[in-house]
Amino acid sequence: MTDPLELAAFDTLLTAEERDVRDTVRRFAAEQIRPHIAGWYADGTLPAREIARECGRLGLLGMHLDGYGCAGVGAVSYGLACFELEAADSGIRSLVSVQGSLAMYAIHAFGSEEQRQRWLPAMAAGEAIGCFGLTEPDAGSDPGAMRTTARRDGTDWILDGEKMWITNAGVADVAVVWARTDEGIRGFVVPMDTPGVSTLPVGHKLSLRASVTSALVLQGVRLPSVAQLPGATGLRAPLSCLGEARLGIVFGALGAGYDCLRTALEYAGSREAFGRPIAGFQLTQEKLTEMTRGLVNGLLLAVHVGRLRDAGQATPVQVSLAKLNSCETAIGIARTARTILGANGVTLEYSVLRHANNLEAVLTYEGTSEVHKLVVGQALTGISAFR
């Protein structure tokens, strides 16, 4: 079996450091994630703290940030780490990207020096876990419609509201929470042991089962003035955090697709029907070819956008286009791979339907396909379809 990426000589696009990062994360996933992931998925559990500490030991948490114990690697290295993590499972990549690209990035970009020193080194080491409270039960694609409020009481702030679909919240030590104030949208660093903070697990998930997903409830949460993120003013701040995290999804979703394609290739080479391996049938080869074409094209775009990000030239529209392409490509690969595996494809013995189910959530979060199409459409036409 030839690896699909060898057909495009993909490794020639990468630096030695980028290949080292990829290979290190691949070994970590092979040794510590893949042997257990089907069981975690079936049980709807994840040993998040243990995984966070291991990821911290490898320098994967906030790895694209500078200082405070962070590795400071480039965007492509970060993307390749996400690719390998999501090739194991989307829930693992989600833990890492929420920690590093949402919670840590928000504190790094908009926090005070005191907030950075207090939280970032512990989060980079995996000793503290963070979550990001933006989405609400009735405010997903339109975060400007959030109902969570923060009001002044003397020099303190009082927060009230509910956030939903919050990855890591149930095991987090700190939350970055966005709320509506008289001065506009503002961000707050909220220790999870603050009175009035609670979480409720989201049960009965069919997607991202190996991930800690919760509602984050804030009832009269009193915070000192120093809890506010001083550099975050307006909705642009949390949206920039989402833009930071989307690059991980651009690579990560394709990692899930890559694992599905490799699984289908291996299965097709060993499964026989009508006296021959099904890899020898024309329709099977057509499916494998089309999956490879989508994967390679997606990765070429991902690396290009990563290079633009490293050069400080990537635009939100380019990231939206890449996120849209990666997610729709990956879920298409997963669904096609499942057809090659036949009935075996619906079991947890193989990864393809687990990936397909996970990608249904990845397709939706941090911008649905519909929203990203409107972002690209606005860039093409100069006309906004949002209002």
UniProtKB/TrEMBL annotation:
Keywords: FAD, Flavoprotein, Oxidoreductase, Transit peptide. InterPro entries: Acyl-CoA_DH_CS, Acyl-CoA_Oxase/DH_mid-dom, Acyl-CoA_Oxase/DH_mid-dom_sf, AcylCo_DH-like_C, AcylCo_DH/oxidase_C, AcylCoA_DH/ox_N, AcylCoA_DH/ox_N_sf, AcylCoA_DH/oxidase_NM_dom_sf. It is an enzyme of class 1 (oxidoreductase). Its EC number is 1.3.8.6. Residues 15-127 form the Acyl-CoA dehydrogenase/oxidase N-terminal domain. Residues 131-221 form the Acyl-CoA oxidase/dehydrogenase middle domain. It catalyses: glutaryl-CoA + oxidized [electron-transfer flavoprotein] + 2 H(+) = (2E)-butenoyl-CoA + reduced [electron-transfer flavoprotein] + CO2. Belongs to the acyl-CoA dehydrogenase family. This is glutaryl-CoA dehydrogenase (ETF).
